[in-house]
Amino acid sequence: MSSVASNTKKNILILGSTGPLGALTTLQALAHHFKITIFVRSPEKLAREIKDNQNITMIVGQLTETAKLFPLLPSFSHIVSVLGPQGLSYKGKAISEFHDVLLQEISTFPTSHRPYVLALSTPSQEAPQDTYSLPMYLMLMIFKRVGARPYSEIRAITQSFEKYGHGIQWTLYIGNLTDTEGKGFASAGWIGDERWKLSTSRSGIARWLIREVECEESQRKWVCMMPALSEN
Fold first, then answer.
1. What is the sign of the dihedral through the CA atoms of 30, 172, 131 and 218?
2. Among 12, 95, 166, 206, whose Cα sits 20 to 30 Å from the Cα of 220?
């Protein structure tokens, strides 16, 4: 079976397509011939090549309007979320509360109909396999002081997966995003590893996400883990 034919069987839901990382991920998914649905709050913020593309199904709604989205969840093979608190002034727990109800809903499905969930996190959330990194330590100390609310929300997202992710295949990918245009793929590992870098381009993360979607279930290396992404 050709890669194109195989990819047309991948029916993915992308959350966060209006942001820079979400737009790059959606365009990468289009290039790989996936069947794509996006769930957006503000369609006017979408890039034109996404908004006007007839190969994308768009659902408009708030994160609280789950009735628009949840009936479709069993049809998806993957859910790719790039949702995250935007800016230091972020308030509330809309994203973590959405993940709470999303995972609880998925857990009611037969195992064969539970999509693989890939969700964004940041270095604010440590994985058990991480080791000490002085640059990361200093960055987190600053972030905890000036960004207490988004820091709390990021940790709450992780707790959503720890509490409600049992029996579901999920990966929380950790990336410290930059606006630089990466040319390669991000690679997954752990904070403090020799190959780990403090920042990763959005384009590198988008390519990594699509590569993970392309993997067959038996090839998934990061299920129920929180790997840190670095540019090759």
1. negative
2. 95
